[in-house]
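Need fresh eyes. Consider my entry:
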Amino acid sequence: MPVDTLFVGIGSDHGDDCVGWLVADELNRRVAGRAFVRRAKAPLNLLEWLEGMRCLAVCDACVGSGAIVDRPVVRRQGHGPAAKRPEAVASKQLDAQLEELDRLDARFRSILDQDPLEWDFTQLESDYRGLRAEIDSSNVQQMIDVRLARMVNYRKTRAEHEEYARLSEETMRRDAELAEIQRRHEAQLTALRQPRFDGAGIIDRAALNRKGAPQYVLLAP
């Protein structure tokens, strides 16, 4: 069954602000495979993770009126046995992989900022697939699959632009050929309308307009 629920813990490494991250870490151990869990430093980070999700839950520490304000500062231990647990190592590895996913997403956006005829997803697709092969989390693999599917659609869009550009170029070439043919034809007609004679002299239209009589006469040699 596809995972379409996203939980985001917003916070940092400092003091009570780490509550969101602590909740995310604990939830990640409990719902692995049933929901996608991520840490965020700012709400803006959520924009990159919402695609393909139907449900979103957010945990963020805040200051309010209640006992939580007087609670002792929560400090995370960066060293010691707890930091060396397999869960902690796996969490750090996943964080590194998610950061790499963010970098690939930034490259994806930079490509889309270009003209569609310049889109080249070859290397980016290879990097996405390489990252997917390194990740054990089915949630993250699903997110990468969504991006690869989008890439297929964007390739179709580029193909449509290429076909339009080809047709436009062919139409312009044919128009230029037709214009040249018309120019030559008009030049030939103009040449046929002009009188032709050998030698030197003054040519004028004949005064008599009889059938079979010459239309032009030589007035002076």
Q: What stands out?
A: The first strand starts at residue 5 and ends at 10. The beta strands are 5-10, 36-40, 55-60, 202-205, 216-220. The CA atoms of residues 93 and 141 lie 15 Å apart. The two ends are 103 Å apart (CA to CA).
